């Protein structure tokens, strides 16, 4: 089959392509593509494992470079949308614009599900000391998106700096208990407040929204519910995880949880046809 998921790094007109990050983190286009490629492979692998648990074998989606070896693991897409305009648009409008632009480009194909990341996402910063809700944090973030449906799952890159650039960095990134500098950078960690929490929640969110492009609807728990926050538990089990990453929202007692915490819905057949993007479920409170 030629059906595949195509990771895309979207650079708006007038933007240099560098995602927001602390000064000691490589925010280049190459770095962004490396992080996106690793994330896509993690989701691909996890899909296979969860379908195996459901009794249908280790089946998963193909990635673009596996179908067309001439393509890179993450394709850089130069958008005609001006960066200043993009930063003023709502996420639903960004989803519609980039979806049309991609389908009208040389990449346009019904055999592709696009996994897009916007390079110009920017957390504007705040002097607020008290904890903020997720909606309040989003209100300080420009060109933010976490929407999926049809042929496009679209995301901002405000937390991309917390993602690994290589396989060897995956576990250390999940275990990173460094507090987020909430005055300068977006905290999308499910109220955990750590860089590792940001990686887990945003990777899980990407999986969730990609699920919508496969016509999966919301579920009570698991990846298509708020279980995507706990995607790190699939990779981190035992006492080591308990001692290093115990948090307010995901208290963990040291027992293996791969088979109970993160799961796809049991019914693999289509449960919802998505014509418009579905917003990710609201965050849980502490």
TrEMBL record:
Protein name as catalogued: Zinc metalloproteinase
Pfam family, any one: Metallopep
PANTHER family listed in its UniProt record: MIP04191P, ZINC METALLOPROTEINASE-RELATED
Native source species: Artitropa erinnys
UniProt-listed InterPro entries: Metalloproteinase_M10B, Unchr_Zn-peptidase-like
SUPFAM superfamilies named in the record: Metalloproteases ('zincins'), catalytic domain (SSF55486)
């Amino acid at each position: 089959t030629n059906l595949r998921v195509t990771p895309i790094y979207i650079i708006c007109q007038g933007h240099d392509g560098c995602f927001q990050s602390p000064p000691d983190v490589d925010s280049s286009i190459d770095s962004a593509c490396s992080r996106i490629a690793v994330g896509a492979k993690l989701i691909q692998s996890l899909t296979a494992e969860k379908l195996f648990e459901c009794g249908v074998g280790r089946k998963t989606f193909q990635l673009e470079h596996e179908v067309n070896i001439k393509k890179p693991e993450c394709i850089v897409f130069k958008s005609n949308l001006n960066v200043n305009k993009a930063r003023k648009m709502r996420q639903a409008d960004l989803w519609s614009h980039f979806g049309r632009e991609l389908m009208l480009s040389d990449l346009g194909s019904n055999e592709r599900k696009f996994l897009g990341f916007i390079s110009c996402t920017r957390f504007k910063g705040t002097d607020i000391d008290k904890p903020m809700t997720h909606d309040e944090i989003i209100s300080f973030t420009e060109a933010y998106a976490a929407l999926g449906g049809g042929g496009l799952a679209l995301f901002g890159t405000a937390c991309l700096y917390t993602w690994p650039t290589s396989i060897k960095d995956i576990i250390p990134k999940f275990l990173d208990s460094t507090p987020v500098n909430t005055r300068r950078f977006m905290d999308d960690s499910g109220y955990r407040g750590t860089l590792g929490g940001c990686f887990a929640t945003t990777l899980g969110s990407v999986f969730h929204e990609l699920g919508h492009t496969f016509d999966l609807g919301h579920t009570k728990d698991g990846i298509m519910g708020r279980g995507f926050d706990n995607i790190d538990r699939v990779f981190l089990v035992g006492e080591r995880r308990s001692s290093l990453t115990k948090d307010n929202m995901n208290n963990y007692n040291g027992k293996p949880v791969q088979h109970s915490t993160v799961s796809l819905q049991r019914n693999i057949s289509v449960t919802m046809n998505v014509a418009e993007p579905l917003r990710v479920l609201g965050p849980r409170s502490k």
